[in-house]
Amino acid sequence: MRLPLLERIAMCLVVTLSCVLDLGQKLLCTVPQPADVSRAEYVNRFGCWSDVAALWNNRGLAQHVFPYVHGTWRGDPPVLGGGTVEYPTATGVWVWLTALPVDSARGFLVVTAVVAAVLAVLVTLALQRIAGRRAWVFAATPPLALYAVYNWDVLPVASTVAALLVATAPPRAWSPLLRWALAGALLGLGGAFKLYPLMFLGAMAVAALLDSDAPWSERVRRTAVTVGSGVGVVLVANVPFALVNYEGWSSVFRFQAERPIGPSTLTIWYYGLLPWSADLDGPLQGTMATLATVTTAVGVLAVLAVTVLRALRTGRTPWIQSSAAMLCVYMVANKVDSPQYVLWLLPFFVVLRIGGWWVTAYLVTDVCLTVGFFRNGYYDAVGQTGETWAGQMLTAAIWIRAVLLVVFVVRFLRAEAVGRAADRPGGAATLPAGRRSLEHPAPA
């Protein structure tokens, strides 16, 4: 349902204000700290850390070196160099482009915030078109005010929501195959920004093949265009860099693979295996990395298996629910679960009905985790030893978040889609590719 114009404007203003608030808070870290205060004490006192400012200072963005082409992975320990950042290629190029007009970390933060605000407004309008008033869950909750300029995660979020919009509320003139191809390409673009949307491409491909609303030959064609367009975008974003400078391109994957699981990764593996995991150079690091990889893969494949079984039984694939469930598996089991990952979840809180109290519990836990993390870092920086309320709140929030994510795996798989994300009243959400649903979409 299309909301009144004034309400949509109000949503956009709230989103913009959230991004401005986050920018103002992050700008505190672009000025020197007082002479008698350490950098760690200053940053953690104000909680103003952001990858945007940090990468400007640590990855040579001020020199505007085109990333990956001149990248290296050398040294002891090895470090990224040559303009390369620790993100997939599309994000790296985006970072390079947005750094071109400025010559300081402060200016870079401002440009990044402006772009993030524009994308967040577009995401809000898309979610409003899909799910109506529920878009307020994205627009008016704390995550944007905390993480809009934390890094560049709004890019894959925007790609994912754009794919949802194409899948559920496209222009009438678009053909079925065009919709499948464009939705797949948008998820591929999300994967070029950050890998996790590629899981959603897998769920969408299952829907393309197993939804029984078309002849088998048409299902094969739409599966081919969905997978082909998504994988094609990923290849276009990666192959040229790999051919020009394989070391620079692969250094990103080496960096992430060799990144130790420590207190800043905020993962159950580190906090669940203390005190042994506290040795960041110890033998347990390899074991934890293997456990994270295996459990993530098994969990994602298990969700896909459930999705396939439901599709075979009912003839309709709950690909949106499956995507949300896989995302929760990834967040709880992977080696890193950064606070800004909540931005990945927000669109699914909008388009799937899992209960307002569950959503509230997760968002409150996320705020507590962030406050506890930075305040605990402040106490460490000033030399305060022993247990503190901040450390206790951080640990509790990590485990509560993990429990909630496990619960969400089940609840998302059983959830009802809302608004245009619902293929039929009370039914499973799927990419509506049948001739009837495509030729006669729901009115605006």
TrEMBL record:
<keyword id="KW-0812">Transmembrane</keyword>
<protein>
    <submittedName>
        <fullName>DUF2029 domain-containing protein</fullName>
    </submittedName>
</protein>
<feature type="transmembrane region" description="Helical">
    <location>
        <begin position="107"/>
        <end position="127"/>
    </location>
</feature>
<keyword id="KW-1133">Transmembrane helix</keyword>
<feature type="transmembrane region" description="Helical">
    <location>
        <begin position="148"/>
        <end position="168"/>
    </location>
</feature>
<feature type="transmembrane region" description="Helical">
    <location>
        <begin position="389"/>
        <end position="410"/>
    </location>
</feature>
<feature type="transmembrane region" description="Helical">
    <location>
        <begin position="289"/>
        <end position="312"/>
    </location>
</feature>
<feature type="transmembrane region" description="Helical">
    <location>
        <begin position="180"/>
        <end position="210"/>
    </location>
</feature>
<feature type="transmembrane region" description="Helical">
    <location>
        <begin position="341"/>
        <end position="364"/>
    </location>
</feature>
<feature type="transmembrane region" description="Helical">
    <location>
        <begin position="222"/>
        <end position="243"/>
    </location>
</feature>
<keyword id="KW-0472">Membrane</keyword>
